[in-house]
Automatic annotation (TrEMBL):
InterPro entries: Acyl_CoA_acyltransferase, GCN5-like_dom, GNAT_dom. PROSITE patterns: GNAT. GO terms for molecular function: acyltransferase activity, transferring groups other than amino-acyl groups. It comes from Treponema socranskii subsp. socranskii VPI DR56BR1116 = ATCC 35536. The lineage of its organism: Bacteria, Pseudomonadati, Spirochaetota, Spirochaetia, Spirochaetales. This is FR47-like protein. Residues 181-316 form the N-acetyltransferase domain.
Length: 316
């Protein structure tokens, strides 16, 4: 068993391996595509690639056959030795692979402080075809669907009804406008980002640091595709963004609606908008909904997303 650093010579081969499992590891694909420091392929003695891991503080991983490999003594022993001196603060990956790594870390005396479990959701074939058909109808619109920063207005949304995405009720509320955001929008989005991280990201074992939150927000605004829903006063009522953009997949995250604007279909509209932009860029959207968040899973299901796997984030 050996752990081979992913350098420029190894990059193409590694990405080709990951492409087969990309929907489970978009962040890892993006990390390697953009440089991939501290990333390694896990190879058998016969030089067969068994997985890929990034061992920065946040551990990203792709171990497709984790269930069977956890019974391979030599593999477990080698992985345990490799991880013994690594400082891991978070394990982030497909559920079976993450729990396999958690088991190895437990044998090293490291127990997670908190674990979040998610449903991995992708578009059904019918929903994808519907978006593709809609994209063809709007093909004459001169907008290049790039997955990167730079502010521009996406669309003027129709009035959103209470529970519009889930129930189709017609009770009209307030007119909103979808806006694509850039770095100049950091101040306006900061309250939503703080609330999002406090409610959806930070585990009980972590304390929020506004400076870190601001840094994260600015990075997202510079490198990801961010959309917000403005109310009639020009204030952001909801936001969503890509978390990572891979080769054939793009991950949606950062979905948050201010309490006063919930149950109006705001988040659903933004996720739908991002899904359309992703499909228009010849990629497929994937997102994760936290287990127990039935409202989010129901809303995403109404858009055509279906659960196709599990995802785990463990904090150390």
């Amino acid at each position: 068993m050996r752990f081979v650093p992913v350098d420029e010579k190894k990059k193409a081969e590694t990405l080709a391996f990951l492409a087969k499992y990309e929907r489970f590891c978009v962040s890892l694909v993006e990390h390697i595509r953009l440089g991939g420091g501290d990333s390694f392929t896990v190879e058998s003695d016969a030089r067969e690639t068994l997985g890929v891991i990034s061992v920065k503080s946040r551990m990203l991983l792709c171990i497709p056959n984790a269930v069977s490999l956890q019974n391979a003594a030599a593999f477990c022993t080698s992985l345990k030795a490799f991880l013994s001196d690594k400082k891991i603060s978070c394990v982030n990956g497909e559920a079976d692979a993450s729990h396999f790594i958690m088991k190895i870390l437990a044998e090293l005396g490291r127990m997670p402080l908190h674990v979040n479990e998610y449903a991995l959701m992708t578009l059904s074939e019918a929903a994808l075809k519907k978006i593709q058909a809609k994209d063809k109808r709007h093909a004459a619109v001169p907008e290049e669907p790039q997955m990167c920063g730079m502010r521009t207005e996406c669309a003027a949304a129709n009035p959103i009804s209470e529970n519009a995405a889930a129930t189709g009720e017609k009770a009209c509320c307030e007119k909103f406008k979808i806006v694509r955001c850039g770095i100049r929008d950091a101040d306006a989005l900061m309250p939503l980002q703080l609330a999002y991280e406090a409610e959806e990201v930070l585990p009980p074992c972590r304390t929020q640091n506004p400076a870190v939150t601001r840094k994260n927000l600015e990075r997202i605004l510079k490198t990801e595709y961010v959309v917000a829903l403005q109310n009639a006063r020009g204030e952001p009522a909801a936001k969503a963004n890509t978390n990572a953009v891979g080769i054939r997949w793009a991950q949606i995250g950062g979905v948050y609606t201010a309490p006063d604007f919930r149950r109006k279909g705001c988040a659903s509209l933004l996720v739908e908008t991002l899904a359309e932009k992703i499909v228009a860029s010849n990629r497929l959207p994937v997102l994760y909904a936290r287990n127990g968040n039935e409202a989010a899973q129901k809303a995403y299901s109404a858009l055509g997303f279906t659960k196709t796997g599990g995802f785990t984030i463990a904090y150390y």
